[in-house]
From TrEMBL:
Protein known as: Signal recognition particle receptor FtsY
Keywords: Cell membrane, Cytoplasm, GTP-binding, Hydrolase, Membrane, Nucleotide-binding, Receptor
Enzyme class: hydrolase
Membrane topology term: Peripheral membrane protein
Organism annotation: Vulcanisaeta distributa (strain DSM 14429 / JCM 11212 / NBRC 100878 / IC-017)
Subcellular location: Cell membrane; Cytoplasm
Gene Ontology molecular function, alphabetical: GTP binding; GTPase activity; signal recognition particle binding
Domain SRP54-type proteins GTP-binding: 278-291
Cellular component terms per the entry's GO annotation: cytoplasm; plasma membrane
Amino acid sequence: MFDKLKNAFKSLTNTIVNSITTTELSEDKLNEIRDELFMQLVESDVAVDVADAISNAIVNYLRGLKVPRFGDKESVIKNGIIDIMSKLFSDIPDVDFMSEVIRLLQMKKPVVLLFLGPNGYGKTTTIAKITHQLMKRGYTAVWAAADTYRAGAIEQLEGHATKLGVRVIKHGYGSDPAAVAYDAINHAKVRGIDYVMIDTAGRMHTDINLMNELSKIQRVSRPDLSIFIADALLGNEALDIAKYYSKYVKIDGLIVTKVDAYPKGGAILTFLYELKKPIYFLGVGQGYDDLRPFSKAEFFRQLIL
Ligand code: GDP
Ligand code: GDP
């Protein structure tokens, strides 16, 4: 995974290892390294601002750097770059999603999870995957079909629910989605169900009516976590839509889907840097087990080491 992004860092370390000696890198060489890295990051789908920030930070680290004549230059440099990346992204926490939602359950029941994002990004599949993970650990869940707008949305959710054996709370199309969410939470309270997952409507374009609707769902359901589902393949579009959403609704964290079909990898850095929200999971396929916990530290090691 992320082969293109990995190659960008690999060619960076190769260039540095080949050029650095016991003397410092020249200013010309540093400029060359910066431009080359910037280009490769942008080609790997990293947004221009983010690519700029990364290449500047790395070149600043390299300026004046001397490595010992003997010893493992490569690992000194790679670990240095990991440090720089960790600093640059230090304001985004790593959250272990499963531990977090299980911890929340010690304090309240049900725990309410709200899923946000445009149609087609993988919202219902992700709800199913997370539910499957929780059910494997012995927890129970109920779903709220709070996309009462798009024809077929309720049936799509029910398709997954039947496979997993989960109850779906639904009203008709055109009904108030906040009321559906409210009912699902009450259902969970009465039945002692652990988790309520709320599916919501999404559109590919910005839409103030939708934002008002989502904001009402959030006010009424008071979710413990509101999760934006971001399609890696639509990096820039997903970023713009997430920024638009975050003006109207609170987003606690992201799940990035379709990473299995996305060798570029750069959107992950872009989402982190631009949205400053933790990424809980990467979606890595269509099966219910195709969900991988994400941690920045692990991601940087994977890219650079
Ligand atoms: P929704 O409209 O946001 O609820 O999107 P769906 O959950 O229906 O997903 C849209 C399509 O993307 C479906 O064909 C899913 O199987 C597929 N999909 C979702 N997540 C992933 C993923 O992580 N990897 C791949 N390859 N496909 C995914
Ligand atoms: P099992 O009962 O958990 O062994 O699941 P199955 O044998 O039915 O499915 C094999 C794999 O496909 C598992 O990872 C399931 O989670 C996943 N899976 C099953 N049905 C579906 C489905 O309708 N949609 C998706 N996206 N994954 C599914």
